[in-house]
């Protein structure tokens, strides 16, 4: 679809038939079953999803002037790609 210029957006949709609230899992499934690259999957889950909601100019990317909610957990991480393939259970955040 990307080759044809189609803009792909990802979301959990909170479908009762496929209960999943984890966006990393959604991105993982897109990489495995839709053959998206990790860059395409994270763009589809962030910027493209914001555009699908009519908020692409104000949300969906970490740039000056945009609104956003995010947490920096470890500034020494050299790559973001692990978030799509690493799954873990919740743990308390050390203070």
From TrEMBL:
Keywords: Histidine metabolism, Hydrolase, Iron, Metal-binding, Zinc. GO terms for molecular function: imidazolonepropionase activity; metal ion binding. One of its GO terms (biological process) is L-histidine catabolic process to glutamate and formamide. One of its GO terms (cellular component) is cytoplasm. InterPro entries: Amidohydro-rel, HutI, Metal-dep_hydrolase_composite, Metal_Hydrolase. The keyword Metal-binding applies. It is an enzyme of class 3 (hydrolase). The keyword Nuclease does not apply. It catalyses: 4-imidazolone-5-propanoate + H2O = N-formimidoyl-L-glutamate. Its EC number is 3.5.2.7. Its cofactor is Fe(3+). PANTHER family: IMIDAZOLONEPROPIONASE, IMIDAZOLONEPROPIONASE-RELATED. This is Probable imidazolonepropionase. It comes from Ancylostoma ceylanicum. The gene is Acey_s0062.g3384.
């Amino acid at each position: 679809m990307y080759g044809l210029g189609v803009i792909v957006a990802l979301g959990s949709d909170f479908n009762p038939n496929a209960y999943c609230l984890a966006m990393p899992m959604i991105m993982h499934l897109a990489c495995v079953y839709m053959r998206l690259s990790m860059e395409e999957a994270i763009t589809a889950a962030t910027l493209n999803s914001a555009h699908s909601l009519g908020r692409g100019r104000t949300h969906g990317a970490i740039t000056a002037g945009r609104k956003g909610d995010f947490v920096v957990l470890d500034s020494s991480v050299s790559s973001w790609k692990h978030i799509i393939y690493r799954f873990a259970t919740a743990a308390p955040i050390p203070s």
